[in-house]
Amino acid sequence: MPTLEKIDLADHDLFVDRVPYEALATLRREDPVHWNPEAEGTGFWAVTRYDDIREVHRQPEIFSSEIGGTSLEDLEPEHVESRKSMIDMDPPRHDVLRGLINRRFTPRAVQVWNEQVRRVTNEVIDAAFAQGPEFDFVREISSEVPMQVFAEILGVPQEERREIIEIGDRLLGNADPEFASDVPDDDSHRHLPFSSPAALEMFAFGRRLADARRADPRDDIISQLVEANLTQQEFDVYFVLLATAGNETTRHTISHGLDALLHHPEQLERLRREPSPELFRTMADEMLRWATPVHHFRRTAAVDTELNGTAIKAGDKVTTWFVSGNRDESVFDDPETFDVGRTPNRHMAFGPGGVHHCLGSHLAKMEIGIVFEELLPRVASIEQSGPVQRLRSNFFNGIKRMPVRVVPA
Question: What InterPro entries does the entry give (predicted)?
Fold first, then answer.
């Protein structure tokens, strides 16, 4: 087990080979509100227990999203303001912007997409199998299904969806050498989301779509945002948030979900043996718990306060590690066991409640369940044919590539 002194959650390299679950378990046990220094920052509190994480997220007046934003970067106030999206806001402005599209993501509204998600999934599987017995599961399936579906909801032409994925990879993967080649060493882009020049490309993409919807409104989110008369900055960051969140987190969960099934073949066989809708629903929640797609979020203490007996000063950065909360031994029975039938499963992959609970949670769970409902009966066998390549990031629990070999049923 790593000692407290050697744990550095600011180090992206710690997350390259695998999630450092042993380090997080040490923190939960020995120092659940832990001060983590930073080589290039002011340091932050790492909150790793489930109940403490819930307490932070349910008190936005004490632990603010708005004061310093949700990135670990130490930003000047003007930079925080210029890149501020809905997730970087506290009520009431957060509630107004969320309310613009909230109705599209209620359980009833999402259920309308069920048959289309199944159709898209089977078309994607067809196309992947046409590549031959070996292909990259991430590129051909886990990134395609959520992006094709969300492109329709958002209003992105299908023929341009891969552009969204590629820009998003460079935007969100800016700590990974593969995607960080165009990120400057100076502060010239700190006013942009993730301090990445790729944000300018995403802005341009969204503005082009907005211009098209002004001339030809449709029943999609872009048309709604255009009609809402947002400022240019509000529209730009809203589009970035939706275009990335609508694909990245679901994509990574599907990738990790297959990885988990291949490493736990008894769970794969259970799904084959008991292919009920209920079991695929609990499977989706367990995949989200097991491989939490977002490691942490940041808040800033608005006032001097205390958390689990630890004094926190106004202005301190406070990070909540969902990936740790989802393995908390005081909440989950046998948390190191992957169990597709786990119930209850009060995971916090979409957040622990509060105003920032993930807007797309119902859609994401539907997509995860349907992908495996449709995929498993169509394969006689599926196995990894090469090493999994993970994203270098202490923020996203990402898989870049997962080569597989498939024998169709």
Answer: Cyt_P450, Cyt_P450_B, Cyt_P450_sf
Tell me the C-alpha distance between 89 and 314, whole Å: 18
Q: How far apart are CA 381 and CA 404, in angstroms?
A: 10
Distance (Å, rounded) from C-alpha 145 to C-alpha 125? 9
Query: Do 387 and 358 meet the contact criterion of CB atoms below 8 Å apart?
Result: no
d(CA 10, CA 231) in angstroms, rounded, equals 34
Nearest to 6 by CA among 36, 28, 42: 36
**Paired sense of beta strands 317-321 and 44-47, if any:** parallel
Give percent of the chain above pLDDT 90. Answer: 90
- Asked if 243 and 168 touch (Cβ cutoff 8 Å), the reply is yes
Question: Which residues lie below 8 Å from residue 109, measured CB to CB, with a gap of 6+?
Answer: 103
Q: Which residues contact 309 (CB under 8 A, 6 or more apart)?
A: 33
Nearby residues of 289 by Cβ (< 8 Å), 6 or more positions away? 326, 332, 342, 345, 347, 349
| Residue 90 token pair | 């506290």
Residue 280 three-state SS: helix
How far is 271 from 283, CA to CA, in rounded Å? 9
The token duo for 309 is 């007996």
Separation CA 344–CA 281 (nearest Å): 12
Give residue 76's identity as a one-letter amino acid code.
E
- How far apart, in Å, are the Cα atoms of 77 and each of 83, 203, 263, 324? 10, 21, 46, 30
Q: CA-CA distance, 202 to 238, in Å (whole number)? A: 11
DSSP of 214-271: HHS--SSHHHHHHHTT--HHHHHHHHHHHHHHTTHHHHHHHHHHHHHHHH-HHHHHHH
174-187 residue pLDDT tens: 899 998 766 666 67
Q: What share of the chain is helix, strand, coil (3-state, %, to 5)?
A: 50, 10, 40
Question: Rounded to the nearest 10 degrees, what angle do helices 232-245 and 161-172 cross at?
Answer: 100
Instruction: Please name the helix (run of DSSP H) or strand (run of DSSP E) that holds residue 285, with its range, or none.
Output: helix 277-290
Report cis status (omega within 30 of 0) of the bond before 344. Answer: yes
- pLDDT tens digit sequence for 75-123: 999 999 999 999 999 999 999 999 999 999 999 999 999 999 999 999 9
